[in-house]
Amino acid sequence: MAPRLVGFVVGTTSPGQTGADEPSTTVARLHDVHRSFDERSVLVSLDLEIGAGEFVAMLGRSGSGKSTLLRALAGLDERVQGEIDVTGTVAVAFQDARLVPWKRVHANVSLGLRRPDRDNVARDALEEVGLTDHLDAWPLTLSGGEAQRVSLARALVRDPALLLLDEPFGALDALTRIAMHDLVLSLWDRHRPAVLFVTHDVDEALSLADRVVVLRGGRIGYQARLDSERPREREHPELVELRRRLLRELDIDTKGATT
Amino acid sequence: MSLTNPRTLPLPGRIHRNDATTSGRGERRRGASWHRLISPLVVLVVWQLASTAGVISAQKLPPPTKVWHTAVQLVTTNSAAYGTLQHAMLISLERIAMGFALGGGVAVLLAVIAGLSRAGENAVDPLMQMVRTLPLFGLIPVFIIWFGIGQFPKVLLIALAAAIPLYLNTFSGIRGVDGRLGELGRTLGLRRGEMLRHIILPGALPEALVGLRQSLGLAWLSLVVAEQLNANAGLGYIINQATQFLQNDVIFVALLVYTILGLLTDWLVRLLERRALAWRRGLLAS
After folding, report:
1. Based on CB atoms within 10 Å of each CB, which residue in A121, A158, B171, B283 is the most buried?
2. A59 in a domain, yes or no?
3. Is A93 on the interface with B (CB under 8 A)?
4. For chain A, what is the domain count?
5. Taking the complete model, does pTM exceed 0.90, yes or no?
């Protein structure tokens, strides 16, 4: 099938302003968020809104505060200052999958669930990520990609309104990664949580997200909305143009030499 | 391609070993355990031969056959001097079970208290460190003055001995639990009790089991010491009696029973270890 691309890109450098057609319902709203570690400011008056069902990719160089922001949204950071409002459940999939090694795969997925049908829910979720054969496996026997799929299933069974993905595929090989992108998109399509996908991979962000935000200087330094249909043609002129722009925002010289 | 070169694999659990390798490894292991019996058997045979040849005086070191014969006799006859061997064994087992349950239970409880909070650590750990450095057997006279020579001071001595390694290892195990798993538990909305049950205690278990084995060793040791000082029943009592009657063979039988019981409990812990730490098997197997 020929991917039809309706490239429509809106960029803005003013923080606190979401894309052109802002979704009517907001799942997460951050206003004037600050966080510093020993005098070093990591988040500085950050504003960000995430709409219901919106897929947001967050880019930033290492140390730019991506993980700090994500931890704040996950409620793991008690010292963060500012307004953080999240409506509904938040679920997290960490970069290291973070499976509990002494719990079998299905028990990892149902861990902390309080509904009576938790075992069935876990089994269904594992079926969705294609791991029906590994229900009783120990996490240490899984490959990196399998572990991440368990981690995704564990996040999804909580019916999150906001799904936080912290560079979940950073440690995977390129082929597994592509498969995981398809999986994430299909899961997102079916369950429609809002997603905040933290990555440092521009291409990953461009192929997945509705909106790409760049974290820079402790706030959203740049953002762009992508309205084209997925799967997206990598070489489409508008994507190429946006890729160049994003790399520039990340201080990476596209001509090869680093500045 | 990485399958052909196991050394390049980052996670042992990922290796899909072919059957030939696995069974070959298993055979080697089984063979090895059989081979380990050879040297003790050789010692036993030499001991027996030296005794029958008259090289070793049977008064000082009775031959294995004599020890066996005495053991059978102690089991089958209820003598005035010794009672029966199995009765003595039960008495000793009861002491160690009580002492171990008391000491072990308190140790785990204290380790959890100390492990979970700084305040708990400040309250509990200094005391435990003091008990640890206390010369345990130096307490025996004090115990006799305090509690007399009944069952309680013996059980208490065993409990103290068993508590220390279990406390130290469980405490360190709790503190060593991966903090990222604690974070995960928070994002999954685990309550305090659930966190303890699903994350903290299982995470501390590998180290706690190491402590358990050390504790068992010390518990047996203090049982032997406690029983020989003042007992009117049990294996230690048999040894005391035999010393008075100069019956070396009886002493050897009692020592043998101690050894067998010690090995038995160690085997039980290992069994427990294999079951409780099954999740690590993929990691340990290769």
Report:
1. B171
2. yes
3. no
4. 1
5. no
Asked whether the ipTM of the predicted complex exceeds the cut of 0.90, the reply is no
Residue B185 contacts A, CB cutoff 8 Å = yes
Any domain includes A107: no
Q: Which band of pLDDT confidence, cut at 50, 70 and 90, is reported for residue A253? A: low
- Cα–Cα distance measured from residue B283 to residue B157, given in angstroms and rounded to the nearest whole number: 38
- Residue A236 lies in domain: 9-100+160-249
- Does A101 reach chain B within 8 Å, measured CB to CB? yes
The size of the A-B interface in CB pairs under 8 A is 59
Q: CB of A141 within 8 Å of any CB in chain B? A: yes
Q: For residue A72, is it within any domain?
A: yes
A218 touches chain B (CB under 8 A): no
* Amino acid identity at A3: P
Which three-class secondary structure state does DSSP give residue A16? Answer: coil
Q: Out of B180, B181, B282, whose CB is closest to A141?
A: B282
Q: Exposed, middle or buried by CB within 10 Å (0-12, 13-18, 19+), for A78?
A: exposed
Task: Give the CATH number for residue A91.
Answer: 3.40.50.300
β-bridge partners, A41 = A36
Within its chain, how far is the Cα of B178 from the centroid? 27
Closest alpha carbon to B250 in B260, B259, B241, B261: B241
Mean pLDDT of chain B: 86
Which of B190, B274, B275, B279 to probe the A interface (max A CBs under 10 A)?
B279
Tell whether A36 is covered by a domain. yes
Predicted confidence (pLDDT) per residue in A159-212, tens digit: 999 999 999 998 889 899 999 999 999 999 999 999 999 998 999 999 999 999
The CATH topology of domain B62-284 is MetI-like fold (1.10.3720)
